[in-house]
């Protein structure tokens, strides 16, 4: 069975977990237009939009977890502010524009999300879910015993990590990371790629040492290598 190899962009985790090519997504993770817009925000190519999104997110986290506002209250207040601002802008625009310049039916031209975008996103989500499901099925059925062991150990440490930090903190950390890590990686791509390659090499050396110290593991590894060839 072929497997994905290569640099840091391949479907693998620290050089240990490999996903089969047969379950890799056939389409990009996001539609090109949506992906470009997201990149402009998370890579700070559009500072105004990125700053507005980052500031709004921090404000929502502050109101939710510090001021103890519920999601229903936040949604209601935000919707109320949106309606009031929209009403004011519409009234001012109508007062300043001449009657001939007004659109006859502006609502018919407005489209927040196109059906093509929704269909593309749902297709991509379904493909990603199938990739993850296929991976965990392979792990659960122990098709690769050492992959199963690695995942089990990783899940154990993840569970211990979850005991130390609350869900709220992890969500906020993920939010901040989404606005900082992609930009940091882009600015230091060569350095980060070099560190990842070094870590992958060290992990592979340790795993090879463990495999060679266990006779059964060495036999299983040699059989798996023979099957791949």
Class of secondary structure makeup: mainly alpha
Low confidence ranges:
1-31
The global form is elongated
Radius of gyration: 25 Å
How many individual β-strands? 2
Count of alpha and pi helical runs: 8
Instruction: Report how far apart the termini are.
Output: 9 Å
Summarize the structure.
The chain has 229 residues and is an all-alpha fold. Helix content is 71%, strand content 2%.
Secondary-structure blueprint:
Blueprint: E1 12-13, E2 17-18, H1 32-42, H2 47-65, H3 71-96, H4 115-140, H5 145-164, H6 167-187, H7 189-213, H8 215-228
Antiparallel strand pairs: 1-2
Describe the structure in your own words:
Helices cover 71% and strands 2% of the residues. The chain is mostly helical and 229 residues long. It has a two-stranded antiparallel sheet. A hairpin with a 3-residue loop joins strand 1 and strand 2 (17-18). Helix 2 runs antiparallel to helix 6 (167-187) and helix 7 crosses helix 8 (215-228). The longest helix is centred in the middle third of the chain and has 26 residues, at 71-96.
Please tag this protein with its features:
single chain; 229 residues; mainly alpha; 8 helices; elongated; disordered N terminus
